[in-house]
From TrEMBL:
Designated name of the protein: DNA-binding transcriptional LysR family regulator
Gene3D superfamilies tied to this protein: Periplasmic binding protein-like II, Winged helix-like DNA-binding domain superfamily/Winged helix DNA-binding domain
GO molecular function, one term: DNA-binding transcription factor activity
InterPro entries from the UniProt entry: HTH-type_LysR_regulators (IPR050950), LysR_HTH_N (IPR000847), LysR_subst-bd (IPR005119), WH-like_DNA-bd_sf (IPR036388), WH_DNA-bd_sf (IPR036390)
GO CC field: cytosol
Originating organism: Glaciihabitans tibetensis
Keywords linked to the UniProt accession: DNA-binding, Transcription, Transcription regulation
Domain HTH lysR-type: 1-58
Signal sequence residues: none
Family membership noted in the UniProt record: Belongs to the LysR transcriptional regulatory family.
Amino acid sequence: MDVDQLAVLRELAERGSITAVAAAMHKTPSAVSQQLRTLQRQTGVPLVERVGRGVVLTDAGHALARSSVQIATAMAEAEATWDAYRGEASGTVRLTVFYSAAELLVPGLMTRLKEHPSIDLKVEDQDVSQDDFAALTADHDIVVAHRSDDVLPPERSALRVVPLLREPLDVALPLDHPLGHRASVSAADVIGEAWIGVPENYPLDRVLGAMAAHESTTARIVYRTTHLPLTEKLVAAGHGIALLPRHTSLQRAEGHFRLVPLSDLRAGRRIEALLRPDRAARRAVQIVLEALRDEARTFH
């Protein structure tokens, strides 16, 4: 079996269409179809079947696609061993990270990677619902994701998951807010306020929902945004209060708004790195991941 043909099968299992596979692998759809037909002839069993205007993998196709992951990982591990032996690590590493984590981690990460000039780090900002981060690993070597404390992640056994840090969430109050002098506040103290929130199903929204459920009510959200600096400005101007990540917002809080911990709920978000196992085996990816972990440790 040809390794490239197996890779096509794996991509079809993850992306769901020949057109998507062709775009991801920089091939034409006809070339992808030809490789699938050739692989099917070599194995002697049906690997795909037509459903409507597209194709889906058979049970045999899924089994072979899983095997292709092991083969790709073994090849990447062999290359990483050789790179380590030669003392070299080079190549492009594609990192995607949600906005506030980028602000927290990427400047220090790039400083650390100055020691590895042969690694070309490509960084992209993407923020999605917490259940959708895993899909981004199809197109990126490292995906920095987040989820709220109280939510179990979707099934991710096909990925390597690396915890980076837990960031507490505090209640952001205007400087003149009556509760601003308090060492902590409870959900009952603040849930009735106007809130600056994030899109539904984002980690901070899950925490605010838990606060509301704790008090058997609903939160009154007057504005939703993923842009934390805008949230901070709206709070500072007195247009509402918000949940903000402590490490990310602390530096900008002084003189503009107050960050007050919650007393009765454990509120936080967990920041993790998600990787395909074959990409996690690459030497250059390992170096970037370790630098990312070192930077995250500075906030523990």
